[in-house]
């Protein structure tokens, strides 16, 4: 009976990966570091690392929203009606259409010529 758990007792377990990620995305995680590479007291390379891991909602809450304005990540806005109107004003007015032209019908072999005409496109 030593192996049986008593009802009402809460067993604690270490947080899993999902719990850890949920907490990081909810609260945020900041990693800051500097890496310097030097040779004979001459600094050759310096890397300054600033890493913020959080959810988009949390980033917007703290005032970070650079992805909204990055041209590599955003799609251009569609042309609005006002822009179309301005473009239409710059175009010349279309010429009036002529519905159909009256074209004289050629007489078939053996037929008399009459004043019949046929419509273009028919």
TrEMBL record:
Any one GO cellular component localisation term in the record: vesicle membrane
Region (Disordered): 75-122
Subcellular location: Gas vesicle
Domain of life: Bacteria
InterPro entries in UniProt: Gas-vesicle_GvpA-like, GvpA, GvpA-like_CS
Keywords from the named record: Gas vesicle
GO molecular function, one term: structural molecule activity
UniProt-listed Pfam families: Gas_vesicle (PF00741)
Sequence similarity: Belongs to the gas vesicle GvpA family.
Annotated protein name in UniProt: Uncharacterized protein
Organism: uncultured Armatimonadetes bacterium
């Amino acid at each position: 009976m030593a192996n049986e758990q008593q009802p009402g007792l809460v067993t604690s377990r270490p947080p899993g990966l999902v719990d850890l990620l949920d907490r990081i995305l909810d609260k945020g995680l900041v990693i800051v570091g500097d890496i310097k590479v030097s040779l004979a007291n001459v600094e050759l390379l310096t890397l300054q690392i600033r890493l913020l891991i959080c959810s988009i909602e949390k980033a917007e809450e703290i005032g970070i929203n650079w992805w909204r304005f990055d041209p590599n990540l955003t799609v251009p806005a569609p042309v609005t009606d006002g822009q179309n109107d301005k473009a239409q004003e710059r175009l010349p007015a279309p010429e009036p259409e002529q519905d159909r032209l009256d074209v004289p019908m050629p007489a078939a072999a053996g037929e008399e010529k009459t004043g019949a005409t046929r419509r273009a496109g028919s």
